[in-house]
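Lecture 7 notes: from sequence to structure.
We start with the chain below.
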Amino acid sequence: MTIKNLLDVIKHPGDAVKVSKLWLEYDTLMDDEDFQKAIPLVKKFLETCPENDGAWSDLGYAYSELDRDKEAILAYNKAIKISPENAEHWFNKADSLHELEKYDDAIMTYKQAIKLDPEDKESWNNLGDIYWHLEKNEKSLEAFEKALEIDPEDPELWANKASLQQNLKQHKKSLSTIKKAIQLDPDYSSYHSIRAIGHLKLNELTKALESASEAIGLDSHDGLGYYAKSRVLHAQSNEKDALKTINKAIDMNRGDPENWLIKATILASMNRDDDAIEALIVFTSLSPDELEELKMRKEFENIRNSERFQKLLSKIS
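Predicted structure tokens for the same chain:
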């Protein structure tokens, strides 16, 4: 927003100095990410400039950064009403809908943003994320590929496509795709972790271990790298080191159910049945929908008939 914009929208010429000062104050707070303090100043600014779509958008952004997405959507609606041809307003609203898991509404809103700005890679990318979550994999792949057509130099887009290909069990294609992300940004650890998972899925354990170790070397807090490495060590029957490694992954992200499942698997292999069940209790609390599959998993055959395991199943069923 420029001073000229302010002069165009204020109600009275005499308000120009006051309003421009107010805008500078809230804009500085926004830049400093002090959104709690910025919100009342944006609202005060809008009392004088109610038709300024940029300020409504700023208010929405401040709300969204504070996880107040319902309020953010109301602000973005005001911005859209004033300037319905502004693709950014539609994109911002779609992001808040996405955060609220209102996926159908988010899809329609991203599509409107794309209609206004077909070259917006972020809208295509986020649309792909939602389709992936909804298990509409072909649509997800199409959206990611469209984003890559717009910007083939963005490594994150290649990584998203590679992760989806892994989900579709297209592991060779995934390795080819993630290689492009690594070529564009070789120092980003997560891309090496994704490659490690790809090699692991193809039972290429040496390559998987190399990629996981490279990820951890680049970022000692890369939880996915520790997860991948623990799975390789488990596959090599190195259970002691596998357990140490998955514990590090859990330290990075205690809320990831896959970490607890791998820990349970390792502990079961070590005949530490009670500890394995403790890990499974956490896993099922985080991912209760996996219970039926858990009953059938081969790695838990030895503990399936134990009293504690049966109590676990009956408690969650």
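Points to note: Residues 1-84 form a domain with the Serine Threonine Protein Phosphatase 5, Tetratricopeptide repeat fold (CATH 1.25.40.10). The chain has a mean pLDDT of 91.
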